[in-house]
Amino acid sequence: MTLELISRGAGTLGRPQLLFLHGGFHDARCWDHHFLPWFADRSWAAHAMSTRGHGKSPGDLAADKPGLEDFADDVEAMIARLGGDVVLIGHSLGGVLSQMIRERNTSVVGTVLLSSSPMRPSLGVAWRMLRQHPVSLFKAQALGDFEAGLPAFISFFYGGNLDPDLKARYVSELCGESPRAMAELFKRKPPETPDLETRPVLVVAGRDDWSIPMENHEWLASTFQAPLKIVPGAHNLMVDPAWQESASVIHEWLMEHVVSH
Questions:
Q1: H or E segment and range at residue 184
Q2: Prediction pTM value
Q3: Does residue 235 fall inside a structural domain?
Q4: Which value, to the nearest 10 degrees, does the dihedral of the CA atoms of residues 121, 123, 128, 133 take?
Q5: What are phi and psi of 158, to 5 degrees?
Q6: Per the structure, how many domains does the chain have?
């Protein structure tokens, strides 16, 4: 299976490559609007992949119903394809995949968890989504139709200050999601945390991301003994109007904790 890979920049000798992992309903393109060229301009080999059924990668999410382990297999295959050490930068569901891969693949020398999905759903968040999009959320949760349920999730992806034309463009790139993978998000075991000193972790949270209560980010940072950086922006920090602040925080951490090692 040939998975989609978007690559920018040649990188600098001795630096690990950056592999960006998209969240649910997204594909590799979400990183190429800003993050891939920005990091490439700063001498990083920056790559974004699409897991099976997303973007140009083969697969049918509704028919095949891949799970988190299937997506993790995709990431491991891509790491092998790239060769050498990598830093995983995972957004939302991609943050969960980053935690899973970090546990078992020592080629991962650093991990950035960007608006990473929590261990357990928040009743407050679910109630807010239900009030705003009752039919969509019902179809997603009760019927497992996550393509029909997409409007409920879009409500927290983007902030109110995003240009309407840009939002329309980003929304046009979204797809459905595997019901099995979404169900497994909140049934997984707490992450294991090997080699924290030699393979560090950074947690980044959006100040305006109402989909993940801040206590969840704090728990994640505590679990990985990682710094928690709070930046302006809604859930989709990589396309938020303040995206460059998130990118700068990640770059500073990379230079201090990854390059210096």
A1: helix 179-185
A2: 0.94
A3: yes
A4: 60
A5: -120, 145
A6: 1
